[in-house]
Design brief:
Mean pLDDT: 96
Number of strands: 14
CATH architecture of the largest domain: 3-Layer(aba) Sandwich
Strand order of the largest sheet: 2-8-7-6-5-3-4
CATH class of the largest domain: Alpha Beta
CATH superfamily of the largest domain: Type I PLP-dependent aspartate aminotransferase-like (Major domain)
Bound molecules: pyridoxal-5'-phosphate
Low-confidence stretches: none
Shape: globular
Radius of gyration: 22 Å
Structural class: alpha/beta
Number of helices: 12
Length: 382
């Protein structure tokens, strides 16, 4: 599907790119949008009034609406950040005043390290405790529940509707890490208070992320950094911060990155998220069938329903697999994939081989991976 939209395949026609959960390849539309900004209206936003600056400001601002529409949010709930990681840190450290000694920060063991470390640090500062879901905690003391909607290791989808409702009942807040779900399935922010993702995982440039924060909870978080664009009024003695998303967007943003993200969303909308999701599901089923057919299911971790597959062979190091696959131009992730707590739980200190799909992935890519994986076992086992 749409392989010709990705110029990298013109230069590397044999590339089998199975690392889209790490970062996605970029379509021509995104590359062109970034280049167009540099070549035709390269200017700072929100400050100057000449034509170039006004065009840059208009283009930048239009992306906020595109992002909001993409997930059914309100424009005022969209905060541009540098990454999903930054968004999580903004919420975690922004809630310092909300957390007290003994409060529980509930995480799941499936979290990316980014959705663990910031919470551990903020817990250490405030006296709150980080507790993982598999410890089966009492939900009454949960002040924050932060979870990934799709696991970056097992490709499983987690909604946690009941826990979300319970946490809300007790006055807690919920953050959904939608980094792995937003480019794969139609995302519904439902009643989550916060959600985060990175542009580079949905075919946009890196260095840009989005934090959704519902209007009522935006007031609960303090900005991480301060500077230009963040205030309503300033005097020698005092500053009054803006009472909207501007409060969290200090300094000149990654203008070209945000414009590129807008182009990525246009690109995805043109294909339609329904079609993208169908493609992902079809390939996921195909991969599962091929793993079964080739006797490889025993190595699979979890039960993926989206295009992220992690495999563990008891005898062969993931890096050895990756090296042999790389010789056939098959790009996969090998190691703990930033999920150390899950790897510890599974006893997989060396990590896994992870193959993950994007909208350009084909059944032929899957076949080549399966053949390459089997061939590596033949060469490396014993
Ligand atoms: C589920 C999940 N959350 C967060 C992140 C962090 O994203 P970034 O490194 O773009 O901040 C990743 C990246 O792999 C991820 O898969």
């Amino acid at each position: 599907m749409n392989r010709s939209d990705f110029p990298i395949f013109d230069y590397q026609p044999d590339l089998v790119y199975l690392d889209s959960a790490n970062t996605t390849l970029k379509p021509r539309a995104v590359i062109d949008a970034v280049r167009n900004y540099y070549e035709n209206y390269s200017a700072n936003i929100g400050r100057a009034t000449y034509d170039l600056a006004e065009r840059a400001t208009l283009e930048f601002n239009s992306v906020r609406q595109k992002v909001a529409d993409f997930v059914g949010a309100d424009l005022r709930e969209v905060i541009f950040t540098h990454s999903a990681t930054y968004g999580i840190n903004q919420v975690a450290f922004g809630l310092r005043d909300f957390l007290r000694v003994g409060d529980v920060i509930l995480l799941t063991e499936y979290e990316h390290n980014s959705n663990i470390i910031a919470w551990q640090k903020v817990a250490a500062e405030t006296g709150a405790r980080v507790v993982f879901l598999d410890e089966k905690p009492d939900l009454e003391n949960v002040k924050i529940f932060a979870f990934s909607h799709v696991s970056n290791i097992t490709g499983e989808v987690f909604d946690y509707d009941e826990i979300t409702a319970k946490v809300h009942e007790n006055g807690g807040l919920v953050l959904a890490d939608i980094t792995q779900s937003i480019g794969r399935t139609k995302t519904n922010l439902k009643n989550y208070d916060f959600a985060v993702f990175s542009s580079h995982k949905i075919y946009g440039p890196s260095g840009v992320g989005v934090l959704f924060a519902h209007r009522e909870v935006q007031e609960k978080i303090n900005p991480l950094i301060f500077g230009s664009q963040t205030f309503k009024k300033i005097s020698r003695e005092n500053v009054i911060l803006a009472d909207n998303f501007s409060r969290f967007e200090a300094g000149t943003p990654n203008i070209e990155g945000v414009i590129g993200l807008g182009a990525a969303i246009d690109f995805l909308n043109k294909i339609s998220m329904n079609k993208i999701s169908e493609h992902d599901i079809e390939l996921t089923k195909y991969m599962t069938k091929q793993l079964e057919k080739n006797g490889l299911m025993q190595f699979l971790i979890g039960a993926p329903t989206t295009g992220i597959f992690s495999l563990n062979h008891p005898k062969i190091h993931p890096h050895d697999f990756a090296m042999l696959l790389n010789q056939q131009k098959i790009a996969v992730r090998a190691g703990r994939s930033c999920s150390d707590i899950l790897m510890q739980k599974l006893g997989l200190d060396r990590g896994v081989v992870r193959a993950s799909f994007g909208i350009y992935t084909t059944k032929t890519d899957v076949d080549k991976f399966i053949a390459g994986y089997k061939n590596a076992i033949e060469r490396l086992a014993d």
